[in-house]
Design goal:
The chain folds into two domains: 1-85, no CATH class; 90-276, Jelly Rolls (Sandwich), CATH 2.60.120. It has one helix and 21 strands. The protein has one helix spanning 77-80, and strands at residues 22-24, 27-29, 31-33, 39-41, 48-50, 56-58, 90-94, 105-110, 114-117, 125-128, 136-140, 152-160, 165-172, 182-188, 195-199, 204-208, 218-224, 229-233, 236-241, 251-258, 266-276.
Amino acid sequence: MADKDTSWVGETARPAKMDVISQFHGAILPTVNFPVDSLFLTEADGSIYWQVGTFAIPVWQLIIKTTPFAVTLASMYQAFYGLTTIGKQRFVYWFDGKDLSVIWTKTNIAGTGTFAMVDTIDEGYMVRTGAVASDSSEIDMNNKRQINNANSALISVTKRVDTNCELVCGLSNFITGSNLEAAFYRNLSTASFIDLLTGDATVSSGSNSDVAPHTNYTVAKVTTGASDILLHLDGVLKVTKTTNRPTVKLQPKFRMLSNTSAATKEGRIRFLEAYNL
């Protein structure tokens, strides 16, 4: 290994930018741009140095041009982010195992539904309504609202199993069947297209994609912004909606609604991720 040049550590003068390409056993290693005001451990002596400005620092070197001092870190987060940088909430959940985590609440909005893991590989979790028209059941966060209404995203992998029913998955302020204060991906079997369903405090409305309703697993991403809400289906932007946007904090939910008395209606969810941007 080539000797590491640390002679400039502790010097008063420093370059405005440090561009370094390092070598390790003859291989060229990439440089890494670290955030401003961060703490790093050097490989040379195990000391911690305070970064001033933004530098491109070799992966193996992790040293900066300032006077070293000893610091005890409370977490690895502090090693890479300034103490004034607020971490974003991020919720990731894979629907597998025996049953849901206690994070989730099983809610019957109307009728008595069935909630269970599907005993088939990669089929996730099942929410099945009762057998009466307008029966509806969902899983939600029991009004633990930690998602920003105007700067967040939710990604889900879901599928509608039956006809004559509605599947919605997204963000909502309520644990009822209301579509107010919400932003949903909606797969309604009787509609012409899958749509983006949103609501503010008084009005809800939908904007169509160009994808017809189906019973296949779909990766849907709902993104809330300061001026619009986006719907991506399987990685492709399909809807940009500027009207009837939620105005309060939200929670993830997955809901099934029956449109007929003929039989129970089932939907499945494999994965859900929600986070603030």
